Amino acid sequence: MNIKKSFIAVKKKFTSYSKHNPHRSFHRTLARDDIRSLKLPGYFAFTVYVWKILWTNRKIFISLAFVYAVLTALLVGIASQDTYSMLRETLNTTGGDFLSGSWGEIGKASLLFLTAMTGGLSQSLSDVQQIYTGLITLLTWLTSIWLLRNILAGHKVKLRDGLYSSGSPILSTFIVALLLLVQLLPLALALIGYAAASATGLLAGGVEAMLFWFSAGLLSVLSLYWITSTFFALVIVTLPGMYPFQAIKTAGDLVIGRRIKILLRLLWMMASIIITWAIIMIPMILLDAWLKSIWPAISWLPTIPIILLALGALTIVWASSYIYLLYRKVVANDSDSD
Q: Into how many domains does the chain fold?
């Protein structure tokens, strides 16, 4: 009897899942079968929409970024000024004619920017520092979502309220974040494989290189496919009374039939962050080098590490807000279509 009830319950769940999921394994999905529409503002229009909300409430969100930066500086540390200065000197002495002149200076600044973006200026973090980094990031994520949820509901909020009230789902959020890290493992394997293949000359050409890029591409696509819904799960899990696996299931149902559209929005967010960093960091690196060349007494000043810390804090707030507002747009689209 219990077996029959279990079978009926599983069948009902499968039927309910099939009704709103137009895709079937190993079958081509026709356009007429993909009935889950998703109407969102354009890429630029939505980005401007996010900026307007953050700018309107800039005092509270800049304060949140400041809190993140201070906690990170005190508990984790900032990028190494010695490493940056050493790398700068190495480029100056080994660049030769290739990195000379105005364009050469821009090239050096670009190389320093890429090194900073990939964490080349940061020292190895201890286990305790890594835990602090995770906790500070989760706190900033939860506070950003709590503030936006209440601001859009018309409530007048303070940063203090967000910091004190947003931390209740931190354990549930941590569990979903762990799932996100697991889903990124295929991408990490692809990156490790790329480093190993580059060192051994495997990417010089031939069938081996083709097979590597094909495998690396599949691993990267797999991670991107998984994390698309998990980002929404990180938002859903902050709802009162929501459990981690319930949030993961709800997020999966939300993106079914439109995962590619949502993934493109997330990739646009990442691209806009990289472009913004380049627009800010490359001129600042050039300015820093010029000022310290005419005033050597300030060579000790960690200008670039401080700017990196500030940009990192603002990026966390921006990305959290972008993903939350994208989630709200998707939910509003479903409500309008019902």
A: 1
Determine how many CB atoms are found less than 10 A away from the CB of residue 90.
Answer: 10
Q: Give every CB contact of residue 191 below 8 A, 6+ residues apart in sequence.
A: none
How far is 267 from 184, CA to CA, in rounded Å?
A: 15
Q: What per-residue confidence (pLDDT) applies to 25?
A: 47
- Residue 202 falls within a domain, yes or no? yes
Q: How far apart are CA 46 and CA 324, in angstroms?
A: 12
Its pTM stands at: 0.85
**Span 111-135, pLDDT tens digits:** 888 877 777 777 777 888 888 999 9
CA distances from residue 18 to 8, 246, 317, 328 in whole angstroms, order as listed:
15, 18, 37, 24
The answer to whether residue 209 is domain-embedded is: yes
Residue 18 lies in a domain: no
- Residue-wise pLDDT tens digits, 149-206: 999 998 899 999 999 988 889 999 999 999 999 999 999 998 888 888 777 777 776 7
Q: Could you tell me if residue 11 is inside a domain?
A: no
Contact 68, 136 (CB under 8 A): yes
Q: Strand ranges (DSSP E) for the chain?
A: none
Q: What is the dihedral of CA 70, 274, 290, 102, to 10 degrees?
A: 180
Question: Would you say how long the chain is, in residues?
Answer: 338
Domain span including residue 114: 42-337
DSSP 50-105: HHHHHHHTHHHHHHHHHHHHHHHHHHT----HHHHHHHHHHHHHH-GGGG-HHHHH
